[in-house]
Amino acid sequence: MPLSREQQDKSNAWQRKYHKTEKGKKTERKKKWKKRGLDMDTFYYVYPIFLNATHCERCGVKFEDKNNHRNEKCMDHCHSTGMFRNIVCRYCNTNVIPHIGFNSISIINTA
Questions:
Q1: Closest CA to 43 of 55, 29, 54, 53
Q2: pLDDT in tens, 53-89
Q3: Alpha-carbon dihedral of residues 47, 29, 54, 64, nearest 10 degrees?
Q4: Which CA distances in Å does 22 have to 17, 25, 59?
Q5: pTM (two decimals)
């Protein structure tokens, strides 16, 4: 049975409120990273690193709020293996610069 308009509005309001909580933010981040191919065995290791990162590990720029997309935090990972590399700014994450020699954080694959 479909929800009434009032029930749908209540549900939408609850979801907006939930997504602003720390638990909601973490859930959304996990869902996005999984969709983008991060090895989920490493999520609980990577997430605190992501939260605590203040500067891009590649170019050193300070992360800013979402109003400045160039300096927004991104989780860099290998698209073929799903392994986490670093927390970088959006600019470094989207530039097509080889990662060879890039000082990455190593994670032992638990698979």
A1: 29
A2: 999 999 999 998 666 677 888 888 887 888 888 999 9
A3: 180
A4: 11, 5, 28
A5: 0.69
